[in-house]
Amino acid sequence: MQTLVRGTDVLARMSGDQFAALLTDCSLENATSVGENLREAVRNLRFPWEDHVFQVSTSVGIASIDVTTPHFADALSAAHAACLVARREGGDRVRSYQPSDLAHGHHQHLARWMQKVREAVESSRFQLLVQEIAPLDKSASQERHGELLVRMLDENGDLVAPHTFLSAAERYNLMPAVDRWVIQSSFAALDNGSDALSSLDLCAINLSGQSLSDPELLGFVTGLLDAAHFSPGRLVFEITETAVVENFEAARTFIHTLKERDCRFALDDFGSGMSSYSYLKNLPVDYLKIDGSFVRGMLEDPIDRAVVESINQIGHDLNMKTIAEFAESDEILAALSELGVDYAQGAAIGEPRPVS
């Protein structure tokens, strides 16, 4: 594909099986020709697997960038929408953007929120919250945990629903900037003796898969640790199961390096992918967080309860403490305690509260 664009153009992999080309000083007619060449090159690819030979196809969406384009994000959103329409129409075709391609408004909506998130990052318009994680058997552990959560504020200072801005941040690769704000703000709150954190033995910070693949993140964190006045042993970094599987070597290096500084680690949302049991044996993780979708339904669905029990057992066999997410009632807390889960987090324990 790289040989089919000019030296002045930029071709990049966006994510998964999605690629983007930025063609400079290129007419729509020439861009369509480039798109057709790319489509044909992919179509001519064959690869054998066992007793079969497979053919590959691709869909191409094209959008112009000129003086009338409000922001690059609008062009990217338009090209993506055109690509999806081409795919819906059967694939293996090139489509130039038409206004009707954004009829459903989803991609335009994400692009608008991308700009809002970028502005929030630039002006630090976020709020840090903490939600308690409590031991289910207080005779076995007196450690008090809390997970640090981020919320975005809009132009009027009102809270934005997390999934609204996080979807855009993930789609347009803004999570590393959001994560860095959380890390820096969390370190500052711990250094300043925030009342909301002073009673907690451990504070958990989430890291996205995008941040985990950032080669500069480790240096950023160790630099902050060098300047910090609190014990690194109070920190737990939470990494999702999916992020570990997709960035295994980066995750292992990150974990090993920071564990040498006494930081701890939790594998978050475990069970959502059901693909990483083999990875657990090779990761020095301290806590296993059981995906809340199973915890929430464990009273009504015996399969959900069996999954919770299985993950809890595996965690204990690997000398990890287990944490159940979405513990929303006293009945769920009792069931988790009966299974021997170590900690719980959710509405039955406490709602998130502002750090400052």
Describe the structure.
The chain has helices at 28-43, 72-88, 106-122, 162-171, 175-191, 195-198, 209-212, 217-227, 241-246, 248-259, 277-280, 292-296, 302-317, 330-339; strands at 10-15, 18-22, 46-49, 52-55, 59-62, 93-96, 126-135, 145-152, 202-207, 235-240, 264-270, 287-290, 321-324, 343-345, 353-354. The chain is α/β, with parallel strands linked by helices and 356 residues long. The chain folds into two domains: 2-104, Reverse transcriptase/Diguanylate cyclase domain (Alpha-Beta Plaits, 2-Layer Sandwich), CATH 3.30.70; 122-354, Alpha-Beta Barrel (TIM Barrel). The protein has an eight-stranded mixed barrel with strand order 7-8-9-10-11-12-13-14, surrounded by four helices. It has a two-stranded antiparallel sheet with strand order 1-2. It has a two-stranded antiparallel ribbon with strand order 3-4. α2 (72-88) runs antiparallel to α3, α3 crosses α4 (162-171) and α5 runs parallel beside α8. 34% of the residues are buried.
Give a short account of the largest sheet. 8 strands, mixed, barrel
What average pLDDT do the residues reach? Answer: 89
Overall tally of structural domains:
2
Strand neighbour order, sheet with most strands: 7-8-9-10-11-12-13-14
Q: What is the CATH class of the largest domain?
A: Alpha Beta
Query: What is the string of SSEs from the N terminus onward?
Result: EEHEEEHEHEEHHHEHHEHHEHEHHEHEE
Class computed from helices, strands and strand pairing:
alpha/beta
CATH architecture of the largest domain, by name, is: Alpha-Beta Barrel
Provide a quick synopsis of the model.
It contains 14 helices and 15 strands.
